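Async update (no meeting this week)

Hi team, since we skipped the sync, here's where things stand on the single-chain job. The sequence we agreed to prioritize is pasted below, unchanged from the tracker. I ran it this morning and attached the output directly underneath so nobody has to dig for it. Comments welcome in thread, and please keep replies under the output.
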Amino acid sequence: MAQRIVTVHVNGKKLKVSCPEGQESALIKASEDVDSRLKDVANSKQILTTEQSLMITALNLANELQQLKAQVEKDKIDTDEKIQLLQSTIEQALLDANKNSKKRA
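Output:
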């Protein structure tokens, strides 16, 4: 897939980043999100350095990602259980229908 160079602005710095063609808007949106989060952390007045702001922002993003992954896994398990229940319900209904048709014959 072809690569494109996209210029983004994060933490007051202009960065040129390579990304797959067609993903430019996603990259720009991600950079805007990171920039906004960095500003929020920096404005908290408890963070003294740029490095601290970057680290706290990275940790917050990593934590959110872990929570989302856990939720996706839980949703997958719930969906699999529902599918199994539906399959067993359908199989039981087919068995019952088969038994009823044999009784009539």
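Quick observations from my side:
Strands lie at 3-10, 13-20.
The longest helix spans residues 50-104.
Reply here if anything looks off.
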